[in-house]
Amino acid sequence: QVQVVESGGGLVQAGGSLRLSCATSGRYAVGWFRQAPQKEREFVAAISWSGGTTSYADSVKGRFTISRDNAKNTVYLQMNILKPEDTAVYYCAVRNSLTIPRVNEYEYWGQGTQVTVSS
User: Fold this and answer.
1) To pair with 90 at 20 to 30 A between CA atoms, which of 1, 18, 83, 118?
2) Burial class of residue 46 in the structure, from the number of CB atoms within 10 Å of its CB (0-12 exposed, 13-18 middle, 19+ buried)
3) Taken in order 106, 3, 18, 118, is the CA torsion positive or negative?
4) Cα 71 to Cα 107: distance, rounded to the nearest angstrom
5) Could you say which DSSP state residue 50 is in?
6) Measured between alpha carbons, how far is 107 from 96 in angstroms, rounded to an integer?
7) Taking the CA of residue 82 as centre, how many other CA atoms within 13 Å lie in the half-sphere pointing to its CB?
8) Left, alpha or beta for 81 (phi > 0: left; psi -120 to 50: alpha)?
């Protein structure tokens, strides 16, 4: 059974930082998504199985960094210069593939972790 568990969310002031973690039961291509109230879920960032390829939404480029520790089966999302519009539930999703999946190809999802950025 594939397990995907997010952690690291919380309340932070605008301009601050948080690091989210996504612990999985194996090694996968991993994506981060977020969903704000009354909005659709949107792609944030993704990383390939090896970690050699990453992808970011334009809204987070230069502020967020995705990385992975394959020895720990954990993917991180370092979020810097946070803005109130980054407030959302952040979800981690995985697919058993070497390359970064298309947005609709992720197979397993975590329960999400809340990130709230105050102004």
Assistant:
1) 1
2) buried
3) positive
4) 22
5) S
6) 8
7) 23
8) left
CA distances from 46 to 38, 64, 88, 94 (A): 24, 11, 17, 9
Mean pLDDT, all residues of the chain: 97
What number of other Cβ atoms are within 10 A of residue 51's Cβ?
16
Contact predicate 77/66, CB 8 Å: yes
Q: In percent, how much of the chain has pLDDT > 70?
A: 100
CB-side neighbour CA atoms (13 Å) of 20? 33
Q: Could you count the other beta carbons within 10 Å of the beta carbon of residue 26?
A: 9
Amino acid 80 reads N
At 104, list the tokens.
């609709």
Q: Pairing relation of β-strands 54-56 and 64-69?
A: unpaired
Backbone angles phi, psi at 22, to 5 degrees: -130, 105
Q: What is the pLDDT of residue 33?
A: 98
